[in-house]
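User: Before I run my own analysis I want an independent prediction to cross-check against. Here's the chain; please return only the structure tokens and, at the end, one sentence I can use as a sanity check.
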Amino acid sequence: MPKPMMSGEDIERDTRLHDSLSRIRHVIIIMSGKGGVGKSTVSSNIAQALSLKGYQTGLMDLDITGPNIPKMFRIEDEKLYAKKDKLVPVSVPPSLSIMSMGFLLPERDSAVMWRGPMKASAIRQFIEDVEWGDLDYLIIDMPPGTGDEALSIVQLIPKADGVVIVTTPQDVALLDSRKSITFAAQTKLPVLGLVENMSGFVCPHCGELTEIFGSGGGERTAENLKIQFMGRVPLEPGVARSGDAGMPVVIAEPDSRSAAAFNEIADKLIRTVEK
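Assistant: Structure tokens:
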């Protein structure tokens, strides 16, 4: 059956989408199989670490119904403005641009009650109608699971560099992370690696590491599935403090174990996609 002819409006939209993507060198999708594993914390710290390393970086918050990224950078009161016919993302020093549904809500507590097609339309606009400029990296913070948003972004950016899976050491989280890996395989997206978050609690008084949720499950899963293990991020009070205060831990507490882990993950990500 022949494909339906594209309208002039469809051709123009596809051109705008292509033009936006052509100025972005690498697109990295951060996924998790379930909520509560700290995916947004990982996304924000990786993006900030890349920015600190001198890369022009964008961070796209695609949790349409629960956008948390603005809070993590203390920019939840920022409002977007238009430049020509595109929205300008919020800038965070030294070289980070952020786009989130949180900037478009009338109130912080406003609920977004949209079905799939509305979410897909918003995701497309986040790419084609935002003035991202020339980026080295666009980090996409997905909502948990493998639903509408994940499918929409894969369809819009079929040539993304790949996905980074975030999990915690517990078996239930690792079970769900395997579903994200299966999703990537079925949509022909490379899996760049797996991050084990909350990998042991670091006592703020003595520095001792206690494995509250266990440890090593992420590394074993990566080994069994033959994907890259990108590192462990310990659970430190400073991570929660910095997130609530609106400053990623790589800036707030750069000498912490967590900051060191995020920087190492960012370095592995750079080596993986640049080669």
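Sanity check: The chain has a mean pLDDT of 89.
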